[in-house]
Amino acid sequence: MLWRMLFTSVAIAGCILLDNYVDLPYSLKGESGSVYYYFFGSVVFGGLFGVYLLPMLCVFPWYQNMDQHKYSRREITLRILKCGVTLALGYIMLIIILRIMNLPMLMDYEKQDIVDSVLDGEVFAHFDIIASGREILYFLIAILFAFCEGCLSGIVAEYASYHTADKSHVIISPAVCMVCLVYLGKYLRIPDDFRLDRWLLMRSVLDNSLLTVLIVVLITTVFLFLSILHLSKKRKQNDQPGKKPVNKGYAIGIILLLLAVLFMELADLMSFVNACTDEFSVSVTPFSYPFAIGESFCQMVYMIFYLGLISLFVSKHYRDRARSPFRVAGRLITISLLMSGAFLIMSCLTLRHPEFRNEWKPVWSVLALRYSAYLSFDIPLPFIQNNTPLAALIISFILTNLCSVLLGTIYILGNQIRSGIGSIASFGITLLDITAYNLLEFKIRAFSPLSWAQYVDYDSDGCLNQIHVTVYCAIFVILIYINLLAFHLLKRREHPNG
Questions:
Q1: Is there a contact between 353 and 284 (Cβ–Cβ < 8 Å)?
Q2: Residues 342, 481: one domain?
Q3: Is the distance from CB of 185 to CB of 168 less than 8 angstroms?
């Protein structure tokens, strides 16, 4: 298992570097970059691969062989602690890799900028430590927080493994939990200084660094202690894990949580539209679905939660029983249609003063012309001029469902190759579109299925990257069919008489 830990730690370091890959060529030439630069750009400042993929990767080596797991307090404790060590080792591996590349821990101008910001009173989390010349202590705190985050991810995975025997769901559960933690903190308007996710990522402190470190360690210790007691007791009562594909109560709880986060995401997106309709006492066509699902962050959250649902309802138990890949595809399509239908209904409910007509009310045109800078999403005026609400809704609905099903087939195919691979691959693909914006590398969008599904970005001729929407639909269908065929062939090889 040691080689798995080492391989995973390198992958963790790679995810952090991937969030800043544009700068890597210059760093390899020794022209710029530092350990602090790559760490801050990915984890602290707000990368995606270094934030959302790491909770999955750190549990990946330890939940591959769940059939061989033992559930004594000692074994549960060791598994959770190993998750923490794996993530901490990933941070250490990042430092080693960058030091081998002859990059300093901190560039002189970076340190001077931090000192100046502290003197000006613009103190970011833990900057006072670097300003006092203790940058090594800064990275030691980062490694400690990585250990705590890994342990908390292990706790989530351990609870997920109690409720379902599907390894792929167990591996994806910490990532979905991190997304929920981030977005619930945002939409419940919890102050940044009181958010656990921001403490772990070194983005906020509660009063000072020392107090924050003590609180994070205390929270991790308490959660670890209570979860071990609770899980070991539950395992003694039911020492037959994996008997059922998924616990129904657990599934219902996950669905309600995902719907709540999606609803809050939509309400936040449409808050300015509602403010305008309230101020001018006008109605609005409630077909905001194309704009909402075309917003990168909202679409990313939507697709991540779709993956969370299929990890529950297209489990290994179901995939093994399904004789035809088209039965699996049928369930993927059903879940996609139900989720997109729920999203469509929520997109209508989040708008006040709705008026259902197949024409854009003046509100949308006014927003596109005069208030686009204040909106959280794009409303291109040519899009409104060239598409009726119903046509835009139908095309966006089709593209979204095709994208969802494609991600679902990548999920099941990857997990058929090796449990957990599909979870990581499909989750990583959901981050491509928003990563392109973060890095200002828009060429990446040409390879992102999520970008293809954003109909609001198509031009007046219905083209994206000079490719027509019908061609993208055909590409989706072909890729889905290829993935299902490959899944079927792999399954036939494993079960030739099945």
A1: yes
A2: yes
A3: no
Instruction: Estimate to the nearest angstrom the gap between the alpha carbon of 320 and the chain centroid.
Output: 27
List all residues 6 or more positions away from 224 whose beta carbon is below 8 Å from its beta carbon. Answer: 77, 80, 151, 155
The pLDDT score that the predictor gives to residue 288 is 85
pLDDT attached to residue 226:
92
Q: Do 237 and 258 belong together in one domain?
A: no
Specify whether the CB–CB gap between 140 and 213 falls below 8 A: no
Instruction: Indicate if the alpha-carbon torsion angle 410, 474, 306, 191 is positive or negative.
Output: positive
Strand partners for 463: 468
Q: Are 16 and 36 in contact (CB under 8 A)?
A: no
Q: Strand, helix or coil at 165?
A: coil
Q: Which of 102-106, 410-414, 420-424 has the highest mean pLDDT?
A: 410-414
CB count, 10 Å around CB of 96? 15
User: What percent of the chain is modeled with pLDDT above 70?
Assistant: 91
The reported pLDDT for the residue numbered 276 is 79
Residue 183 lies in a domain: no
Residues contacting 416, CB < 8 A, separation 6+:
319, 422, 487, 490, 491
CB distance 33 to 27 below 8 Å: yes
* Domain around 97: 1-172+189-241
Task: Give residue 66's pLDDT.
Answer: 65
Q: Is residue 180 part of a domain?
A: no
Residues 372 and 275 in one domain: yes
Number of structural domains found in the chain: 2
Q: Which tokens go with 325? A: 């890949």
- Whether 181 maps to a domain, the answer reads no
The whole-angstrom separation of Cα 297 and Cα 431 is: 9
Tokens 């959302």 correspond to what residue? 52
- Tell me the per-residue pLDDT of 11-43, one tens digit each, with 9 for 90 and over: 999 888 888 877 777 777 766 788 888 888 888
Structure tokens at 31: 């022209």
Between CA 247 and CA 263 the distance in angstroms is 24
Return the closest-CA partner of residue 343 out of 307, 389, 303, 395. 303
Residue 184 lies in a domain: no
Which tens digit of pLDDT belongs to each residue from 321-373? Answer: 776 788 889 999 999 999 999 888 888 888 887 888 888 877 787 777 777 66
**Cα 139 from chain centroid?**
25
Tell me: do 235 and 285 sit in the same domain.
no
Residue 319 has pLDDT above 80, yes or no: no
Judge if 260 and 339 occupy the same domain. yes
In a shared domain, residues 306 and 166: no
Distance CA 214, CA 434 (A): 34
Tell me, yes or no, whether 226 and 294 share the same domain.
Answer: no
Query: Residues 227, 375: one domain?
Result: no
219-251, pLDDT tens digit by residue? 999 999 998 888 877 665 555 444 455 667 777
Domain boundary among 224, 241, 258: 241
